[in-house]
C-alpha cells in the first residue's frame, strides 16, 4: 500500500518579470504549489487572503506600484513576517540594500541569475527551519495549555471536596479565586509595594482556593448549623484557620511560593486590619497581602451568597456594608480597589464557573507564552536550528556510509554525501514517496512496508531492521536497512520521522 500523499507546501513568488516567475516555477513546481504575484500590491492582497496556507515568499524588491520593501512593511504591520518566511530575490547586491531587507525580516537572499541547486536548497532549508519552529511552538503551546487545564481541574475538584462537607455547591472556592485575581490586578496597578507580577498573582489566586481547607476538620453539626453559634461552637469554628495552616506545614516542598502563600492565606484570612481578627490578632501590614486580599474576597462572597443561616445580599448592598465597616476593617487601598473593580467583580461573579475556568486557562496560557519570546521566528531561533543542521552535516559528511534522515513535517528525505553519490539522488528530496528519481531506485511497495514498520514501533522500542533491494550502479542489489523511528515527547507520542543506515550486501558481509 502506497502511503498517502504528503502535504505540499505553497510558495508565493512576487516578481514583476514574467520570465523570472516562469524560471522559478519550473524549478519548484514539481515539489511545491506556486502562487504568482505580478507586483507588490498583488502580493499583499494574496497574503491578506491566504496567509495561513503560504509557507514561503520569494520576493523581488524592485517592482511597480509597491516594491518589495513595501511588501515587507505590510508583513511587519500585520505580523505575517512572524509566520511566513521571506527569501529576497534580486540582482541588486548593494550591502546597504541587502542589510535593509534583513532588518525588515528577510530570512535569506538569492541573487539573479538563478542557480537551480541554490534555489532548491535554500527553499528547502527555510521551509524546514520554519516547520520545525512551528512544531516546537505548537508543542510548547500544548504543554502550557495542558498544565493550566490540569491546574484548573484540580482546583475544581478541591472546591467540591471542601464544600461537600459544608453542604454548598463549590462555587465559593471558585468565586474567591476569581475575586482574588481581580483585586490583585487592581492593586498591582496602584502600587509596586507588593511585587505583584503575573506569576505571583496567579500563585496567590490558586492558593486562595485552599483558604477554608481546615474546615474539613470541623464537626459537620457545627459546620452546617442553621442558627447562631454558641461561644463554644464559634471557638471551635475559628480553629479551621489554624488547622488549615497546620496542614500546609505538613505539605512537602515548603520552599515553593505556592505553599508559602497557601499557609499565609489559611492562617490569616480572618485577620482584620485593625487587629480585631483571629487567630493571631495581627494589625495592618503585619497581615500578608495574600491573606488581606482573600479576607476581603471571602467577606464579599459570604455576603452575596445564600447560607444556611441567611439569604444573599445584592452586590450593591454587600459593597456598601463593607465600606461602612460592618464586616470589619480592611486596608484603605484595598477598599479603593474594591470600588474601582466593582463592575468587573459583579460581571465575573455572574459568569458560569465552567466558562470562567476555560477563560482562565486561555488567559494564563497566553500570558505564559509571552515569556517564550525565542519561539517566534526570530534570528535567534533560526540560528539555533541552523546550528543543529551544521552539526548534523559535519558528522554525515565524514561518513562513507549511506545515512538517511526522514522527517514527516515537512516530508523530506536527507542523505549523507556518500548516500547521494551511491544512490544518485540529491542531498534533500521533498515528498520522496512521489519523487520520480526515488521511485527509480526504490520499490514503492517496499518503501511502504518500511514506513509501516517504523510507524509501528514505540518510543521505548524504536529500532527496526529491513531487507529489500535498491537500484545501485544500474542493477538491483540486496540491502539491509537499520532504522530508528523518531517520536515526539508529548503525550501521546507522535511519529515524526526516522534516521538510519543502508548497508549494501558486500558491506553487510564485511560487518558480519
Give me the CATH fold name of the largest domain.
Hypothetical protein af1432
* CATH architectural type of the largest domain: Orthogonal Bundle
Note the beta-strand portion: 5-15%
Annotation field: number of helices: 21
- Termini separation comes to 33 Å
- Supply the helix-strand structural class: alpha/beta
Work out the helicity level. 40-55%
Q: How are strands sequenced across the largest beta sheet? A: 8-7-6-11-10-9
Number-wise, the strands total 11
**Largest beta-sheet characterization:** 6 strands, antiparallel
Shape annotation: elongated
- When the domains are counted, the total is 3
Q: How much is the radius of gyration in Å?
A: 32 Å
State the CATH class of the largest domain: Mainly Alpha
Q: What do we call the CATH homologous superfamily of the largest domain? A: Hypothetical protein af1432
Low-confidence stretches: 1-5, 372-385, 507-512
Mean pLDDT: 82
Please specify the SSE layout and strand pairing.
Blueprint: E1 10-14, H1 18-28, E2 33-37, H2 40-50, E3 54-60, H3 68-77, E4 86-90, H4 95-103, E5 108-111, H5 116-165, H6 171-190, H7 198-207, H8 220-223, H9 231-237, H10 239-249, H11 257-268, H12 289-304, H13 315-323, H14 332-340, H15 342-349, H16 353-369, H17 379-397, E6 402-407, E7 412-415, H18 417-423, E8 428-430, H19 436-441, H20 444-455, E9 463-472, E10 475-487, E11 495-504, H21 505-511
Parallel strand pairs: 1-2, 1-3, 3-4, 4-5
Antiparallel strand pairs: 6-7, 6-11, 7-8, 9-10, 10-11
Helix pairs in contact: 2-3, 5-6, 5-16, 5-17, 6-7, 6-12, 6-14, 6-15, 7-11, 10-11, 11-12, 12-13
Amino acid at each position: 500500500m502506497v502511503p498517502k500523499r504528503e502535504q505540499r507546501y505553497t510558495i508565493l513568488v512576487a516578481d514583476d518579470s514574467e520570465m523570472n516567475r516562469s524560471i522559478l516555477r519550473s524549478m519548484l513546481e514539481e515539489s511545491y504549489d506556486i502562487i504568482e504575484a505580478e507586483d507588490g500590491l498583488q502580493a499583499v492582497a494574496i497574503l491578506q487572503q491566504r496567509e495561513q496556507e503560504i509557507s514561503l515568499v520569494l520576493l523581488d524588491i524592485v517592482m511597480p506600484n509597491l516594491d518589495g520593501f513595501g511588501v515587507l512593511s505590510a508583513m511587519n504591520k500585520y505580523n505575517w513576517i512572524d509566520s511566513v518566511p521571506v527569501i529576497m530575490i534580486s540582482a541588486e547586491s548593494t550591502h546597504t540594500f541587502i542589510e535593509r531587507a534583513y532588518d525588515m525580516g528577510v530570512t535569506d537572499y538569492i541573487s539573479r541569475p538563478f542557480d537551480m541547486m541554490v534555489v532548491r536548497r535554500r527553499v528547502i532549508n527555510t521551509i524546514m527551519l520554519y516547520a520545525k519552529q512551528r512544531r516546537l511552538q505548537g508543542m510548547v503551546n500544548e504543554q502550557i495549555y495542558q498544565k493550566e487545564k490540569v491546574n484548573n481541574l484540580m482546583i475544581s475538584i478541591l472546591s467540591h471536596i471542601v464544600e461537600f462537607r459544608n453542604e454548598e455547591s463549590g462555587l465559593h472556592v471558585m468565586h474567591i479565586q476569581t475575586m482574588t485575581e481581580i483585586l490583585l490586578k487592581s492593586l498591582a496597578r496602584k502600587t509596586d509595594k507588593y511585587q505583584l507580577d503575573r506569576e505571583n498573582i496567579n500563585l496567590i489566586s490558586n492558593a486562595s482556593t485552599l483558604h477554608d481547607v481546615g474546615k474539613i476538620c470541623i464537626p459537620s453539626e457545627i459546620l452546617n448549623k442553621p442558627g447562631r453559634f454558641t461561644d463554644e461552637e464559634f471557638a471551635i469554628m475559628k480553629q479551621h484557620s489554624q488547622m488549615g495552616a497546620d496542614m500546609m506545614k505538613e505539605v512537602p516542598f515548603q520552599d515553593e511560593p505556592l505553599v508559602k502563600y497557601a499557609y499565609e492565606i489559611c492562617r490569616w484570612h480572618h485577620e482584620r486590619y485593625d487587629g480585631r481578627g483571629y487567630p493571631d490578632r495581627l494589625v495592618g501590614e503585619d497581615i500578608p497581602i495574600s491573606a488581606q486580599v482573600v479576607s476581603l474576597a471571602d467577606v464579599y462572597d459570604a455576603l452575596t451568597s445564600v447560607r444556611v443561616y441567611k439569604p444573599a445580599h445584592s452586590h450593591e448592598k454587600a459593597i456598601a456594608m463593607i465600606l461602612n465597616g460592618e464586616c470589619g476593617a480592611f486596608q484603605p487601598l484595598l477598599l479603593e480597589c474594591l470600588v474601582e473593580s466593582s463592575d468587573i467583580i459583579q460581571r465575573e461573579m455572574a459568569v458560569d464557573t465552567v466558562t470562567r475556568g476555560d477563560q482562565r486557562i486561555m488567559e494564563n496560557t497566553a500570558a505564559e507564552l509571552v515569556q517564550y519570546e525565542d519561539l517566534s521566528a526570530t534570528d535567534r531561533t533560526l540560528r539555533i536550528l541552523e546550528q543543529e543542521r551544521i552539526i548534523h552535516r559535519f558528522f554525515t559528511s565524514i561518513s562513507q556510509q549511506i545515512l538517511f534522515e526522514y522527517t514527516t513535517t515537512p516530508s523530506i528525505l536527507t542523505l549523507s554525501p556518500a548516500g547521494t553519490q551511491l544512490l544518485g539522488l540529491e542531498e534533500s528530496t521533498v515528498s520522496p514517496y512521489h519523487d520520480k528519481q526515488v521511485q527509480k531506485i526504490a520499490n514503492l511497495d517496499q518503501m511502504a512496508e518500511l514506513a509501516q514498520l517504523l510507524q509501528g514501533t514505540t518510543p521505548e522500542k524504536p529500532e527496526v531492521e529491513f531487507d529489500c533491494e535498491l537500484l545501485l550502479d544500474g542493477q538491483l542489489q540486496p540491502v539491509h536497512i537499520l532504522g530508528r523511528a523518531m517520536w515526539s515527547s508529548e503525550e501521546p507520542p507522535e511519529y515524526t520521522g526516522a534516521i538510519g543506515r543502508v548497508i549494501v550486501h558486500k558491506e553487510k558481509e564485511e560487518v558480519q
